[in-house]
UniProtKB/TrEMBL annotation:
Coiled coil: none
Pfam families the UniProt entry points to: Cupin_2
Domain Cupin type-2: 69-132
Organism: Paracoccus zhejiangensis
SUPFAM superfamilies, A to Z: RmlC-like cupins
Name of the protein in its database record: Cupin
Length: 323
């Protein structure tokens, strides 16, 4: 594969194209400054304005959210896995029907495999613009987002209506639901009872991994974060490894499924027959299946990288208490 062909599978941080109208809370005060990025796969955006950088199926989606301080993402749920790691800033994640069942604060490099089937939201509590990267299970990411009822009601008060087909219409732009199309129904009280309310103590020990802990685990070999024998619970349809400057190997490697490389710290050099590329934090690279490559830091100093590869596992199990 030539360098030009591979460059088409690299999304540079500086080339990311944001969408500010991706979801139903795009006009809601406190959430109206969000930027959403769909990097690999179609994602779960509800807006036709969302730009997809790489549409090649991987068995999972890669996205990102960029938010200024005090900006939050409203309470929602997914039918498949949702894994976040903090690229930049300081973030508070919260969950439950009203967002008060539990919470955790993540720093740069920390990763959170949010349990499937619970309402969750997040906000930038840092002092500068922050960015979190996301891995969503499945090629279709579970068919969209399930919003807490109050989010849909708040959005309606600010001019946005979500159709039952998951498409947004903005009355501020003169848009209305097409004739015969109904708005997204609110979840009933009985339906809401099916969404668990795990506490912080239920979730954090089993679903959160800290950057410094992973650096220690990956001192001599890459650390399996999610997947078979992973540090975090669940086998969500993809596995995630954490690689550092100390555990990186110059040995050639390849995978049965496409691999996605996402640097957190430092610069990384990827070499394959036909070319090479250097990745920086915020860059995303898709390595084709069965293509041998080497992955090493391109300079001295601290370096860390998350790698995600699809598996044959189901795309995430509903949350359940630890055994």
């Amino acid at each position: 594969m030539t360098s030009a062909e591979m460059e088409a599978r690299i999304v540079r941080y500086g080339d990311l194209q944001p969408c500010k109208t991706a979801f139903i809370d795009a006009h809601t005060p406190g959430s109206n400054q969000k930027e959403n990025f769909t990097i690999i796969g179609g994602g779960v955006s509800e807006s036709p304005d969302q730009h997809v950088h790489i549409s090649i199926p991987h068995g999972f989606n890669i996205g990102a959210a960029g938010q200024p301080p005090k900006c939050r993402n409203s309470l929602h749920s997914h039918r498949t896995a949702e894994v976040f790691f903090v690229l930049k800033g300081r973030w508070r994640f919260f969950w439950g029907r009203w967002g008060n069942a539990g919470e955790v604060v993540l720093e740069e490099g920390d990763i959170f495999n949010i349990p499937t089937g619970i309402f969750r939201g997040f906000e930038n509590i840092g002092t500068d613009y922050g960015m979190i990267m996301a891995i969503l299970g499945g090629d279709d990411a579970g068919g969209g987002v399930i919003w807490a009822p109050q989010v849909i009601e708040d959005a309606r008060d600010h001019g946005l209506i979500l159709s039952s087909k998951g498409k947004l219409y903005d009355s501020k732009k003169g848009q209305a639901l097409p004739e015969g199309e109904k708005p997204m129904p609110l979840l009933t009280e009985d339906e809401l009872k099916a969404f668990p309310e795990p506490t912080t103590a239920d979730v954090v020990p089993h679903y959160v991994a800290r950057y410094l802990d992973l650096m220690a685990l990956a001192d001599r070999q890459s650390a399996r974060v999610i997947g078979e024998n992973g540090k975090l619970r669940d086998k969500p349809g993809f596995e995630v490894d954490f690689i550092t400057n100390r555990s990186a190997s110059e040995a050639s490697q390849s995978h049965d499924h496409p691999a996605v490389l996402m640097p957190v710290k430092g610069h990384w050099k990827v070499v394959w027959e036909g070319g090479s590329a250097t990745l920086a934090p915020g860059d995303t690279m898709s390595v084709p299946e069965n293509l041998p490559y080497t992955l090493t830091p391109s300079m001295t100093g601290e370096a860390a990288l998350y790698r995600s590869v699809g598996t044959a596992d189901p795309a995430g199990a509903t949350w359940a208490p630890a055994a």
